[in-house]
Structures are given as C-alpha cells and as structure tokens.
Design goal:
Length: 271
C-alpha cells in the first residue's frame, strides 16, 4: 500500500527539480558532489537506514489501516447464555399448556363410568379411595379428565351466558388447553360426608382433606396448588394430581422446575 493512499498523508506530489529556485538548486548540486571516497559509503549507509525507516513506518501504517478496517468484534453470547427463563415462559393466566390424554389411555374411576383418568392414575385413585373408606372417609370424585373441547365450552360459552369479560372469566376458569384436567392425571375431590364444601376453600376443614394430607403421597397423589405456590395459582385444596410414573412426573415437574425460576405473579384460579 503506498503512502499516498494512507489517511492523513499529503496527496500533493513533491516539487520537481525545475521548480527549485536557481540559488537553492546550486547548493543542492554542490552538496551532491563527493568530497572524498568515504562520503559515498556514508551516503549509502544513510540511504539504507532511510529505506529501512521508511519501510518500517510503512509497515506500521499498514497495520494501523488494517486495524481500522477490521475492528475487533466482541464475542456475542451463545443462545443458551442469553436465554432467560422469562423469555421461555409459555404460561397463560398463570397456567401451563399441557397435551391432551389419548382416550385409549383412560379408564373409569366412578361407578357409572362417567369420570375417567389415565390408567395408572385411575388404579391409584381407586386404591386410595378404598383405603380412605376403610377409615370411614369418603373421597368423592367431582371432576377428573376433561377434554380441551369441554374446557372450551366451560370457558367461552359460560362466559357469554354470564356476560363476563375475559378477565372476569379467568378468575374462575382456565383457558382451554391450559388445564391439568385434560392430562388425565388431575382430579377434583370432595368429602362424600360434607358435600357442601365441594370446590370450596372450606374443603380443607373436612375429614377427607385431613386424610389426604396424611396419606395421599402413599398413592402418589399431591396437591396441585398449595398455598403460596410459585406458579401463582389460587389455592385449591380439592385439586390433586397423580405423579406416580415417568410420564406424569415429566408432565408436571418439568414445569415446576421452570416455575422455581419465575417471580411469583398475582394469583389466578385453577380450572
């Protein structure tokens, strides 16, 4: 790269010999005459030094130009490092989306066969209900598997019938696709001896709830939304879910681990 192309260098050509005044021109001619045999050597050494100096200066100028034209770019963070939990949050009104259970995997838990759960959950509930009955406690199933289409009817049609806004409806029902009920693992339980407490916070005062609090884990059931849950869903003592196999554990606990990284939002009711 020539010096003429370098930033900051003069773009004018040096004056020609003919442009130098005569008086100065004669002085230059006199200096150019060798005075001794040693002088050419000195001039030669000086010339080599000048060339080296100019060459070195040119190299540094070239490097500076390269640096300006190719600035160092800071390494950008990897996708994994830049991904925050909030950016992956797929909740709607504090509820997570879940896949719907295939109907082929459901079996009855009620005598009339109307209420169903996934087979492992259904067997566990029947065993749990039998154990409670042996202690004169009646675990009454109120609602179990509920399809997404049924949830849509509950959410939108009743909303229209009651002239509710979306926000008002969200206080008492989760949007379709965001209910634990259509997983086939969730169930609402009441006390058969105290039906007035069904789907009420007062259910926690019943013998059925007290029995569940002590024994549900033996049958791999847990309370979905305990008081102060980090998911931010309203406390519902009647809403329980089965977590007794790999599929059910992954369905709920992958979401729970994500919940631990979230700030607690304002409460919202579960389905």
């Amino acid at each position: 790269m020539s010096n003429a192309s370098q930033p900051g260098k003069s773009q004018q050509d040096p004056p020609s010999f003919d442009d130098i005044p005569i008086a100065e021109r004669e002085t230059v001619v006199e200096l150019a005459k060798p005075k001794s045999q040693l002088l050419p050597w000195l001039w030669g050494l000086g010339g080599f030094g000048t060339i080296a100096l100019l060459s070195g200066g040119g190299w540094f100028a070239y490097q500076a130009a390269q640096t300006r034209s190719n600035p160092t770019v800071a390494a950008s963070p990897s996708p994994a490092a830049s991904l925050s939990p909030q950016s992956a949050d797929e909740r709607l009104l504090n509820h997570f989306a879940y896949p719907e259970a295939p109907k082929s995997e459901l079996e009855p838990i009620s005598a009339d066969g109307a209420m169903k759960m996934r087979s492992p959950a259904a067997r566990a509930f029947r065993e749990m209900a039998a154990a409670a009955s042996a202690e004169e406690v009646i675990l009454n199933p109120i609602s179990a598997f509920r399809s997404i289409s049924a949830q849509q009817q509950i959410y939108f049609e009743i909303k229209a019938e009651r002239s509710q806004t979306l926000q008002e409806r969200a206080l008492v029902s989760a949007p379709p696709g965001y209910s634990e009920h259509h997983t086939g693992y969730a169930i609402d339980i009441g006390d058969g001896n105290v039906p007035a407490t069904n789907l009420s916070p007062d259910f926690e005062k019943t013998p059925a709830f007290q029995w569940l609090s002590k024994n549900a884990t033996r049958f791999n059931f847990e309370l979905s939304f305990p008081k102060g849950n980090k998911q931010g869903v309203t406390y519902e003592p009647w809403h329980w879910r089965f977590v007794g196999d790999k599929a059910s554990l992954e369905t709920f606990y992958k979401s729970k681990e994500f919940q631990q990284q979230q700030a607690s939002p304002s409460p919202s009711p579960s389905p």
